[in-house]
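Lab notebook, bench 4. Still working through the backlog of constructs that have no structural model yet. Next entry is a single chain of 422 residues. Request: give me the structure tokens for it.
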Amino acid sequence: MTAPKRKKARANGEGTIYQRKDGRWEAAGYVLAADGTRKRVRVYGTTRKNAADKLAEKIADSNRGLPVATADSTLGDYLTYWLSSVAVHQLRENTHTRYAACVRLHLIPGLGTKKVARLTAKDVRTFLDRLRTTCQCCTQGLDTERKKCCAVGECCQKRLSTLTVAYVHSVLKSALEHAVREDELPRNIARNVKTTTHQPRRFRPLTAVEARQFLDAARADRLHALYELALRTGLRKGELLGLRWEDLDLTTGTASIRRSLQRTRTGGLTHLPTKTRASERRIALPTECLHSLKEHKQQRNKERETAGSTWQDSGLVFTTPTGRPLDPANLTRRFRGFLNRAGLRRIRFHDLRHSTATLLLEQGVDLVVIKEILGHAHIGVTAGVYAHVRLRLQRQAIDTLSNALSPAGNDPDNPPATAVVR
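Model written out:
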């Protein structure tokens, strides 16, 4: 008679592991919870080893003193754990700072006491509706010390914008999505809640005439080469400020975009990777930019001689007169001053990038090429941002076709009218 098959011995500290009726493997063990107590957690896997590995990872984190949030935790505890143990390793620092502000100002006050496992779509919908309609001065007591607004019974109705409410919602979805991936939740209920569609900010890019005026006025500015490079290539502000001389090949006329200069809360001015992998790219430089960059290099050499011992060689293309990196906020202020002195319409610095794409589209440049120049991750981003331009070009194309198909279109003595761009 065949001896009964013995169950595999459980390793010390492995927890309880068994196969469920649905075929999945479940592993359970005790770990350090976000509230400081020890709680039993369950994880699931397609194989015994898969479940055991997931539980071992949680136990290892617990043994290192890292709390493990569970579905039994309150949402406040879980969000705190997610920000400090998960999101901090996945997000850029400035993005993590914005996420933390959303959690601190809105999510924890509004939903923090709810249990993660018991959170419903109705809870999220009610929270977002309240967030959308409630004055933030009243909610956060912003004017209590100044004795203004709500503090004196005269509510200013300072509500959050549709964009901010959508951003708070996206942070909650990201946090709960991690709980789903960790098998703490069966589904992400925040995804079942639909928020008001955010209308993209309408921007007014420079027209071709305004762009020529901008370039003419920029020639007299110390940062002429930067402004020209921004308008002719569409580089982001951080990409321009993070550009090094070693990234430029003035002989072949190319620039390699490898990093971005950003100010972070903990590191100050810091060189960070580009926004996305697609943003790390090599672009061709227009002849006009090559000329202005060579002039800028000569000007920089003169500034180095003038600065003498105070010069700090950072290797960057665009710096202060003493060689230090240019702060993005200072560039914004300089740009506003330049527009005022030149008598030009006030725009954001980022609108130079929008102007580049708009002018390229209007010149018939293919959308794929524009995506590569701008460094968008997906062509859908390019198509979505500049949908209004494409609609105008469609109208132009349709009007041209209508003129060609009209009876007058075949009459050599009565040529079709020129299409009007609307």
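Notes after review: The first strand starts at residue 16 and ends at 19. Strands lie at 16-19, 25-32, 38-45, 248-249, 254-257, 259-264, 268-273, 281-284. Flag for follow-up if needed.
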